[in-house]
Amino acid sequence: MRLTETMVLREVQRLSSRDLRIWVEAGWVCPEMGESGPVFDEIDVARLRLLCDLRKEMALPADAVPVVLGLIDRLHETRRHLHAMIAALADQPEEVRRAVAARLRAQGMRRGK
After folding, report:
1. How far apart are CA 92 and CA 70, in angstroms?
2. Between β-strands 32-34 and 37-39, what pairing exists: parallel, antiparallel or unpaired?
3. 53 near 65, Cβ under 8 Å?
């Protein structure tokens, strides 16, 4: 999905055009630049919704936003790495998978912990 600024403003009704421009200028959202202006994708829209929650619902100060966004970005990066490790582990022989599972159990890394 590729959305123009106008389409994003319709999609995220809590978002003002002023806030959108400020947040893009601040680098909190980084849309691609098209021939007629910024072009937003689903991740940009999700981030804009999050920013609306943080700034409008939770009244998070502007100077704290980069810290929160940085932490969220790190969390997503960690999840991507974890999924890649799981996929790599799935390609290993059964005895390797069992040994890794046993090691994780011994370290207390079971589901829900």
Report:
1. 33
2. antiparallel
3. no
Tokens found for residue 84: 């890649």
Contact 43, 3 (CB under 8 A): no
3-state secondary structure labels for all residues of the chain:
CCECHHHHHHHCCCCCHHHHHHHHHCCCCCCEEECCEEEECHHHHHHHHHHHHHHHHCCCCHHHHHHHHHHHHHHHHHHHHHHHHHHHHHCCCHHHHHHHHHHHHHCCCCCCC
Residue 92: which residues within 8 A CB-CB, separation 6 or more? Answer: 100
Q: Which amino acid is at 39?
A: V
Q: Which of 76, 77, 70, 69 is nearest to 48 (CA)?
A: 69
pLDDT digits (tens, 9 = 90+) for 11-54: 999 999 999 999 999 999 999 998 888 999 999 999 999 999 99
